[in-house]
Amino acid sequence: MYVIQNGTLYTMDGQGVIQADLRVKDGKITQIGQGLSTEGAQVIDAAGKCVTPGFVDAHSHVGGIAGIGPNQEDLNEITNPLTPELDAYYGINPNDKIFDTVIRQGITTSCVAPGSANVVCGWVVAYKSAGKDRVVRRPVAMKGAMGINPKGCYSPKNLAPMTRMAIANLMRSYLRNVQEYMKKKADAGDDPAKQPPYDLGLEHGIPVLEKKIPLKVHSYMHDMMTLLEIAKEFDILVTVDHAQGASDYLEELNDPHIHGVIFGPTCEPLFPGEGGKLDYECCKGLDDEGVSVAVMTDGPVTTVNMLLFEMGECVRRGMDPVRALAMVTSNAAEIVGVSDRVGSLTVGKDADILIWSKLPTLAADAVLERVFIDGESVYQKEND
Amino acid sequence: MLIKNGRLHDGLGAVSCQDLRIGQGRILAIGKDLAPEQGEEVFDASGMEVFPGFVQPVSVWGINGSMTEIRPSSNDNDERSNPIMPELDGFYAFNGRAATYQQLGAFGLTCCGVAPADNNLFGGTIAMFCVDGVNPYKMCLKRGCGMMASVTPNLKKTYGSRQQAPMTRMWTFANFALQLRKASEYKEEEGKPKDDKLAALKQVVEGQLPLFVSCDSGASARQVWDILQDYPKIRLVLVNGFGLTGDEEWIVENKIPVIARYASNPLDEDAMTMDWKAMAKLSGQGVSVAFSGTYTNSMGAREDMLWNGIEMMKVLHDSEKVLPMLTSVPARIMGVDDITGSLREGLRADVVIWSANPLESYQAHIVRTYQAGQVIYQEGDAMKCM
Q: Cβ neighbours of residue A166 under 8 Å, at least 6 residues apart?
């Protein structure tokens, strides 16, 4: 048991920003308030420091890509554009040393998805960077992809999809098959003889059609409008991932079928096609519009220290620093579907806590000093 | 044009509240309470921070990559047909409109260097350009800023995978030494055909052209240095900074400049050894430390220079120590410090007016960017999209 004392707590829930103490016991936040008793508790002095929830990276591939080169990849099964039966959980190496880097960026939970080679890629898992029980929830989404990645993976093999036309059809056909599968199962009732043959890929789609998890789709620019059309047609929830160009569609994206928008990564120049617009300002626009927005690292292929820069660049374009922080805490947790466990400093939630020298979404030279996951100290800045 | 009441960061380590007069593309005067001349436009920069434009020394801006041509082709700075290509000129890789299209002025850059890729042992010379324009000849600040060389595993990856040399570091280092030896012995003789490769390297050996060597580790940097002991005139510049610890006395004693590149790819184990504290330590001992963008041919962000500076701020917490690493130091290493890279009278008016200090606050944004006295970006300008 310990008490983090006298910090400025960015709770990211209804409590707002408060000067208070925070008690951690058995891996959970058990008490928040002023002048908490420290009897029998270790004291961590956070006077003058900023205390935030651990960051939730709403879209990444950490632990599933071991290195550069062939056979290093465990999250892109580029053998069939429809692989809903797969599950990112099995692609993750929990001992991958990338998690040390991830922790140093303040990321305590990653939403680890299959890569975007396939139109329907498989289940997504919310995964902690350290600790005994790494899985926060599984599945949290079904991953899908539109645009250049599936086209680029299959057209050299002379296979579909070669075009955005075929991508829309493949995505539709899968969702329709799940619908029909569900209907057959319902019609069969209790009669095992009438049940359709078990199909793992279609089973994995049922929570999507039941709106229990979203379809999490790599979609840039106009692809997000195709995605919205499909979401309405099947009455499912979707998240718009990467989302560059979303500033062109702010009103359209304010739709009950859009569960959230996850912007990034942005460590790239403008490039033709879906990378032609790099509009950090869409985050403020979506936030103002009332659409839940988060940012992502997309690590480890791109730099995992992306989150701070993405939030910072949004602040540079007029976003409030605390709203920016929400994009990696409360919003991210809500979009990923793990807000009952993480994403805010709230009594009862997991003690995933960061201590910063300054507010990291405002002060460029803010330094991360401590990281706790499930109450355990997993990183401490070395003294200079 | 008079910029009044701003906080001027000269890029050399000093900051003061002064006025700055721009005319004929240059900084004409810097001083307190400069009076506007008749008809002179006055920009009130009260509460704003006036910076030199960032100088990105070894970048890939302006290079038409494989994704911007209608046919598949390698990047124009990446001639992968022979690992020994010192006779190439990076100037020809630069497409003015391609650089302009990225709107680098909106990210605080006014000058960038085009360097051959790290895939050849000797890749050719580096050229420095403005970031906004059309005609490369008009945009070029300097050709032949240095010879780009590489002893990184990129050589093995490029050629070894084709069953060609180099397949090993042994070849890389043997030929690094051998080519320099041949160049030192080379003489142009009448009646004999000129050897372009050796003639290019001769300039390196004679110290006319600095030798920029991309290294993947502290050990390989030291091996390069050991080979160079036979050639006292060679002016070495270490590129990447990977694996350096800050304890390299030979770098400090010989004042070898270091251009650190951003470790943007966590899967690149060499790049991930870039240590900001080590760079701060070297800089603190008088070594010229500059920053550049992303390593090798990966796509760089337009924010790379600023983000480099921010990472360094997390170590040094002093923007006047960090800013020179993004401006005057790279300008000096590239040999364009008499043209740009600091706020001094007589230099080109490459000036960026920020609403606040971007090395301190994310709320800082650019109000105006001048390249040679011309506004190339100002607040409110539409951002381009492809």
A: A160
